[in-house]
Amino acid sequence: MKITKVEAIPFAIPYQKPLRFASGEVHAAEHVLVRVHTSDGVVGVAEATPRPFTYGETQPGIVAVIEQILAPQLLGLTLLQREAVWSRLHRTVGNPAAKSAIDIALWDALGRTLDQSVNGLLGGFTDRMRVCHMVGFEEPARMVAEVERMIDAHGIRTFKVKVGRKPVTLDTAAVRALRNRFGDEIELYVDGNRGWSASEALKAMREMADLGLTFAEELCPADDVISRRWLVSKLDIPFIADESATTPSEVTREVLSGAATTVSIKCARTGITQSQRVHDLAEGLGLEVVMGNQVDGQLGTACTAAFGAAFRLTSERPGELSNFLDMSDDLLTQPLVIDDGEFVIGLGPGIAVEIDEEKLTRYRLDR
């Protein structure tokens, strides 16, 4: 089970419409397919999703750091040497998506080698997760229409609304339009992607106090240390730490300092190995957890679902598993399906999905 080769293949698939949120806008899934080859002939796969507005990574940067720095350090290690792998990856500062994709591909390769699903290797709590869909910046009528479409086509009943625009009434009006149209038929929460100041966020939350929101996520910048704690102390709903809590140590800092009460786990930035650590820490601290999405394609979504469904804690809340629906195409041989608001994970070996080589040839950028 020794690692013999690590590939980083850039590809681009257009979105059906631009995705807009407070920290940026994307028009295509410009991601990187990572493949880990072993001495047994097994190949594990994963998807690296660069988010330059959030973590500073770009598609060319991910390819370069994997090919030039990370991959050479891993050759000769086995799939079971996860601690050695992480130790060597963390010699390089930053680059969370690149490191996480390598880790996920290692887990996929391990599952394929052992003929076991990653979900089962992690814990196998369930084979399904309820789905939360992200609704980006649009006019209220268009947001209402998108939610109607998701309910009718996929049975989704939980929605995360992107906020963070100024003035705050742009977003509070949109959230109110959704609640007025659907009432208690849907669950709503908001995600600011660090777009507001603490005072703006409090004003917005007070304007939405009667709308029955489940969570508020990352409404103001993580480095606004004092004002962030002040904001959380004023809220009467859980506050999700996302970009501010990407490691176990950051989770500890945010929660114990009073800057957050809930955690978002994203396999796209903490892989599977580090995501386990965040999960265990959250469980020990008695925190709620949501499975987040880094605007992943279907491969990344399959990994998130496999991880989320493996544990009781991460499967209790709907996971963000539907962003791939905004893509015009994908790389898998069998497209993922969301039905009656649920995502049923595959229980085949590894992450239980396969890459369509013809589609990869069509969308890859390095040939």
Keywords:
globular; three-stranded antiparallel β-sheet; 2 domains; Enolase-like, domain 1; 367 residues; 14 helices; 40% helix; alpha/beta; ten-stranded mixed β-sheet; TIM Barrel
Q: If you had to describe this structure to a student in words, what would you say it looks like?
A:
- This protein is α/β, with parallel strands linked by helices and 367 residues long.
- It folds into 2 domains: 3-115 and 358-363, 2-Layer Sandwich (Enolase-like, domain 1), CATH 3.30.390.10; 120-344, Enolase-like C-terminal domain (TIM Barrel).
- Helix content is 40%, strand content 21%.
- The chain contains 14 helices and 13 strands.
- It has helices at 59-74, 82-89, 96-114, 118-122, 140-154, 169-182, 198-207, 225-234, 248-256, 267-270, 273-285, 298-308, 312-315, 357-363; strands at 3-21, 24-38, 43-48, 128-135, 158-162, 187-191, 216-217, 239-241, 262-265, 288-291, 319-320, 338-339, 342-344.
- The strands form 2 sheets. Strands 4, 5, 6, 7, 8, 9, 10, 11, 12 and 13 form a 10-stranded mixed beta sheet that branches.
- α7 (198-207) runs parallel beside α8.
- It is globular.
